[in-house]
Amino acid sequence: MKKLVMAVPIIIVMIALVAIGCSNKGLVGPEDEEELTNSCVDCHTDKALLQELAVVEEEIVSEETTGEG
Amino acid sequence: MEAWEKVWVKDAEFLLSTHGSVGCVICHGGDSQEEVKELAHLNLIIDPSDGDCNTCHLDVAQSHDLSLHATLSGFKSALEARGGDLSEGSALATAMENHCQECHTTCGQCHVSRPDELGGGLVSGHEFRLTPSMQYNCIACHGARVGAEYLGENAGFPADVHWTQATMLCTDCHSQELHGSGYLSDSRYDNPNVARCEDCHEDVWTNTEGNPQHEQHLSDLSCYVCHSVAYKNCYGCHVSIDPEGLPCRTSEPSQMQFEIGQNPLRSSERPYKYVVLRHVPTCSGTCDFYGENLFPNFNDVSTWKYATPHNIQLHTPQNESCDACHGNADLFLTEEDIRIDEKNANQDVIVTDLPETVGK
C-alpha cells in the first residue's frame, strides 16, 4: 500500500520534471520563489542546529563494522 | 558516527541533483512546512528506498526485489531445510523477524546510507553513490567473516593478496550481480553472474607450464583448497537474554580452522571434487528461546558448508609441496573433526580416504 501511495506523487513529479526540464526552481510557484520555506533542507544542512537537536542514541560499538556475515 | 552527523546533508549539490531536486518529502514523507522537528517528522519514511526506486530504475528494482539481499530467502531456505516452520505467526517466524531482518538490504543501504545494523547514517552527505563503500556498506554487514578475513583482522592470519597487492575493493569483484539474478534463489552460491577467479586469471587454465600443481589439480580441487588459509568457523549460536531482558544473539567463540571436504554443490560450474568447508553458526538449539525442537530435521543438512574464504595467498602451508597436502590429516575434515551430535548431518562431506603421499 505504501508503495502505491508513494508512486502517485513520484509519477506526478516526474511528469512535472519532464515538462519543466528538471529545473528545481520551476517546481515552485513564481509567487513564493523568494521565500520558500523548506524546513527539511534548512535543518538538515545546518550543522549547529543538528548538533543541538540530535538525540544521542546508544551505539553498539562492538557491532561496528563486524556485521554477522 | 555522531547522531547529528548521520543526518547531516552536507553536500549542497545534492539539492540540485537528479535525486535531490524532487524534494525531501517525495521520498521521506513528513511535512516540509512545519518548523518543529517532531511535527515535521510526522509520518516520516526513514528507508524510502524500500520499494520506491522502481519509478525510474525499474530493471534494477525488479531484479533486486528477488535477490537474496532483499528477500533473505537464503536464510529462510536454510531454516526450512532443517524442518523449521516459518509460516506466519510461528515461533520461528518471530525469531527470524527479531534477529535476521536487520540484514534485509534496501537500495539505500548500498548506495546512500549505512545499514540499520550500524544504526543508519548517511555515508557521504546525501550522495547517491554509484559505487557502495566497502567499509560503511559491505563490511557493515559482511564484517565478521568476509571483512575480517579480507583485511587480515584475524590475529596471525594475513590479509587477502588482492587487498595487500592491489588494494582491490569488494566492488572490484562484485558488481551489479548484487542486484540479483532476476529469479528467486535460495543460496548464496546460486547466482550465475557471480564473481569467479577465472574472470581475471583465465590463463591459469591455458598455461600450466612450470606449475605441476595446476597441471594436476585445477579440475578436481577448487582454487581455495590451495590458495586460502584458515578462516573463521562459528558454533552454537543461540538466542538468549541480554542484561535488559531482551532476546539477543550469543555464540561460542569462533575458531580459526582450515578444512578440506567433499564438494556438496558439485555441478558443471563447480566441478571440483574437493572444496573448503566452513562450519555455520547453527545448532539444533539455536532458537530454543522461542520454543522447543524448532528444527525437527536438523540432521538433514550438513553443518559444514561450501566456502569461499576471502583470504587468498599465493603461498599457503598446504601448497608448499605435494606432500604438504597429501597424507596430511590435519587439513581434511574427517570423522574426528565432527561434533558427536552432528555426525549424521555431515556424512556426505567428510573425507574418508586421504590422498597418499607422492614423494614430492
Task: Please tell me about this protein's structure.
The complex is a heterodimer of chains A (69) and B (360). Chain A is mainly alpha-helical. Chain A is built from three helices and no strands. Chain A has helices spanning 2-20, 39-44, 47-53. The longest helix of chain A has 19 residues, at 2-20. Chain A is elongated, with a radius of gyration of 19 Å. Chain B has a domain at 218-360. Helix content of chain B is 27%, strand content 8%. Chain B is built from 17 helices and seven strands. Chain B has helices spanning 3-6, 13-16, 24-28, 37-40, 58-65, 68-71, 73-81, 91-99, 107-111, 134-141, 143-151, 161-164, 170-173, 203-206, 212-217, 223-227, 322-325; strands at 231-233, 237-241, 247-251, 255-257, 260-262, 274-279, 304-306. In chain B, the strands form three sheets. In chain B, strands 5-6-7 form a three-stranded antiparallel sheet. A two-stranded antiparallel sheet of chain B has the order 1-4. In chain B, helix 10 (134-141) packs across helix 11. At the A-B interface, helix 1, helix 2 and helix 3 of A face helix 3, helix 10 and helix 11 of B.
